């Protein structure tokens, strides 16, 4: 078996004053595209900061290729990183920033090739102070790529990018994934996640509450909600449950809601029920499906053994 590189956080804690940003944060990632999802303040950027060595954890281990991350240690040269908040010296030119970051790494890619890859060739001589938000974001991506590293950390890399920039970014991330890099991506854009993730990690209150593959989510997305006014519908419940014994049935404000993976068959039978003429079939959003999975996992974890 090939000995693949991995990164790992084990029971990591990090507080800022009395606020715990990471609370027994545990995650292990091998080659592929890993998407970290979570509300604002969940701890994603802090998890990245302790991985890159920008911040020191209070407790727990952070490992890259089995080696413990230390501030200024060798693992930093294995990681290319695009942070969420960007700031460049305003009079320094775009090309100079990328050259400067390249000098940090043992075998960097040529700056010109990287600028081309992120669509900044025409702006190579532009001072950073003159970049738009999206251009500054592209420059951050260039800095993350120039080291040609096995680990690439991207914190909200599509923020501020226009549509073509988002498409190009996806292509770049896909390329990194298929080249066997470990890509760690924090994003609030579920379309990005749906398009890219090999694995999804849900972070809440400083902890990973769910790690799953997108197939699992897609399977949940196979669940549909059938909704109709109960009014004069008679005997609809046994009909729904007969077609799909695993259907979850509820009623709210005179409306029936049936969650089922067999929506078409259930709907067909329901339309034969007396007094039921009008029903709608809804698909849960990716966000809802992820919330359901996170909730189910938390319930299972909390349940007494
Ligand atoms: N330098 C800091 N000083 C004080 N508190 C901080 C600092 N950095 C992060 N925090 C706090 O730690 C918690 C986790 O923040 P973090 O930036 O890791 O979250 P996040 O998941 O990346 O959020 P977002 O989606 O908004 O980027 C938050 O409560 C945040 O306010």
TrEMBL record:
InterPro entries in the record: AAA+_ATPase, ABC_transporter-like_ATP-bd, ABC_transporter-like_CS, ABC_transporter_ATP-binding, P-loop_NTPase
Keywords tagged on the record: Antibiotic resistance, ATP-binding, Nucleotide-binding, Transport
Recorded GO MF terms: ATP binding; ATP hydrolysis activity
Record GO biological process: response to antibiotic
SMART domains noted in UniProt: AAA
Location of this chain's protein in the cell: Cell membrane
Membrane topology value: Peripheral membrane protein
Domain ABC transporter: start-end pairs: 7-230
Record's keyword annotation contains rRNA-binding: no
UniProt main location, coarse: membrane
Database matches in PROSITE patterns: ABC_TRANSPORTER_1 (PS00211), ABC_TRANSPORTER_2 (PS50893)
The organism's place on the tree of life at top rank: Bacteria
Name of the protein this chain belongs to: ABC transporter ATP-binding protein
Organism: Galbitalea soli
Taxonomic lineage: Bacteria, Bacillati, Actinomycetota, Actinomycetes, Micrococcales
């Amino acid at each position: 078996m090939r000995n693949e590189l991995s990164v790992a956080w084990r029971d990591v804690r990090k507080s800022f004053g009395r606020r715990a940003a990471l609370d027994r944060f545990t995650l292990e990632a091998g080659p592929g595209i890993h998407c970290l999802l979570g509300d604002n303040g969940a701890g994603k950027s802090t998890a990245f900061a302790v991985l890159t060595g920008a911040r020191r954890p209070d407790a727990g281990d952070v490992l890259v290729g089995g080696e413990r991350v230390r501030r200024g240690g060798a693992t930093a040269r294995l990681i290319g990183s695009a942070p969420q908040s960007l700031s460049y010296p305003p009079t320094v030119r775009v090309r100079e920033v990328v050259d400067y970051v390249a000098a940090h790494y043992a075998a960097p890619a040529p700056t010109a090739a990287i600028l081309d890859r992120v669509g900044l060739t025409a702006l190579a001589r532009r001072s950073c102070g003159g970049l738009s938000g999206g251009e500054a974001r592209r420059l951050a991506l260039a800095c993350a790529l120039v080291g040609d590293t096995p680990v690439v950390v991207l914190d909200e890399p599509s923020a501020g990018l226009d549509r073509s920039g988002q498409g190009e970014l996806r292509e770049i991330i896909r390329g990194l994934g298929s080249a066997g890099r470990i890509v760690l991506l924090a994003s609030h854009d579920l379309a990005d996640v749906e398009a890219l993730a090999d694995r999804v990690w849900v972070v809440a209150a400083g902890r990973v509450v769910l790690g799953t593959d997108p197939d699992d989510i897609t399977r949940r997305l196979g669940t549909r909600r059938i909704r109709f006014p109960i009014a004069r519908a008679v005997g609809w419940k046994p009909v729904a449950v007969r077609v799909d014994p695993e259907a979850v049935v509820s009623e709210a404000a005179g409306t029936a809601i049936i969650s089922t993976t067999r929506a078409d068959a259930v709907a067909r039978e329901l339309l034969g029920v007396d007094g039921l003429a009008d029903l709608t079939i809804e698909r849960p959003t990716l966000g809802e499906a992820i919330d359901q999975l996170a909730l189910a996992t938390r319930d299972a974890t909390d349940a007494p053994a």
